[in-house]
Sequence to fold (447 residues):
Amino acid sequence: MIKVDISKIQGFIPCNAIKALEQEIKDSILMLEKGNGAGNDFIGWMNLASGMDAGLLDSIEDAARVLRDNCEVVIVAGIGGSYLGSRAVIEALSNSFGQLIQDSKNPQILFAGHNISEDYLYELTEYIKGKKFGVINISKSGTTTETALAFRLLKKQCEDQRGKDVARKVIVAITDAKRGAARVCADKEGYRSFIIPDNVGGRFSVLTPVGLLPIAVAGFDIRQLVKGAADMEARTTSKVAYADNPAAIYAAARNALYRSGKKIEILVNFQPKLHYLSEWWKQLYGESEGKENKGIFPASVDFSTDLHSMGQWIQEGERTIFETVISVEKVQHSVLVPSDDENLDGLNFLAGKHVDEVNKMAELGTQLAHVDGGVPNIRITIPELSEYWIGQLIYMFEKACGISGYVLGVNPFNQPGVEAYKKNMFALLNKPGYEEESKAILARIGK
Ligand code: PA5
Fold:
C-alpha cells in the first residue's frame, strides 16, 4: 500500500487542524465527483483509469510496436503536461545509465520541444543524423511555439533522412480531435494520431495517449500503470473514510501547513530516478494552485545529493517550508558494502550492509534533523518503483491536487497566467495579429 504518514507535522499545526479540515476535504471530493466545482469541464482525468477503453490500449500498444520495430531513437516532442508525465514514468522505471546502453530491444527515448535553445536543437539534430529515428509530436492546442518549432525541424529531417513513406510510418501525432496545427498536419500527411480528450488538461494527461504512448515505446507495461491508477481511484473516492484516503490526508496536511504559514513545499526523493517525477509534480501543483495571489510554492530536491547543496538552507533558513518525502521501500538491485583490510576510509563499520540500508538511515537521520530544525515532514511510502505503484502514486497526487485546489478556493484546472509571456514574445517577434501589442511593448522597452 502507498502510505501517507503525517505524524511529523504535529507541533507545527494546531492540534485539531487535520480533523477541522475534514468537512472541507469531503466537500471538495464530492465537488470533483459531482462535477459541480470550478473548472468542471476539465475533470475527465478523474476516471481515465477505471474507464479505460481496452481498444485504446490495444491501439497504443500497436503504435508503440511500429515505432519500436522501426526506430533506434524516438523523440517525444512536447512541453509541460505534454511531456513531463511520460518523462517522469520513463525515468523512474529505466536503468540509470539507459541513455548510454546500446539496447537493441528498446529504442532510446529523447525529448524535444520543451525549450527554445538553438544549441539543444543543433546537438539533437546532429545526434540523430544517420540514425533511424521517429517522432511523437504531442500538443493539445497544436500551436505551442516550443513544440511546433522542434517538430518543424524533426519532420523535415525525418523525411529527408528516411523518405516520406517511412516518415509517415514513424511520426505519430497526439493532439486535439479537430483543432490546431498538429491536427491539420497529421490529417494532411496521413500520420497515425491519437486524441487528447477535451476534458483533460495537459498536466492531468499522463493516463491518456500523451503519457501512455511514449511509456509503451520505452518498453514499459502501460496496463499495469493504468491498473495502479484505477486501484488508487477506488481508494480515494468519497466512499472511503477520511483517515483511510491517502489523497484526502495529503491534501489536508499540506493545507493545514499552508494555513500555519508554511508557504513552500519541497518534494524530496532519495532515489535519483524520481527527479522527473518531481518535475511533473511541480507542474501539477504549480499550475493548479498558483493563482489569485495564493498557493503553496512547489519546489524539489534530490537527496542525499542536494543535502550537500540545499541542506544548509533547509536546516536553518527561513522557516516557511515543509517537506514531502517520497520513500521507496524496496530497491531493485543488491549492492553490499565490501570489507577492506586497510579501512583507510573508516567504512568497515558498514561492511556487509546493503547500500540501501545506508540510504534509509540517511533518510531517517535527515527527517529527524529537519523536524528538529523546524521543518514539518510528510512521508509518502511507495513499495517499489514499478509501473503499478507509479500508477497509484500519480493518481494519488492528481486527486490530492484537485482536492487541494478547491480547499484553497481556486479553479485548479485552468492556467490563465501561462499566456502572459507568450503574448509579449509574439509581440516582440512581430507575429501577425500582434501589431498593437508590438507597438505597446516596443514603447515600453524604449525602442
Ligand atoms: O498543463 C498544461 O495545460 C500546460 O502545461 C500544457 O500542457 C503545455 O503548455 C503544452 O500545451 P500544448 O499541449 O497545448 O502544446
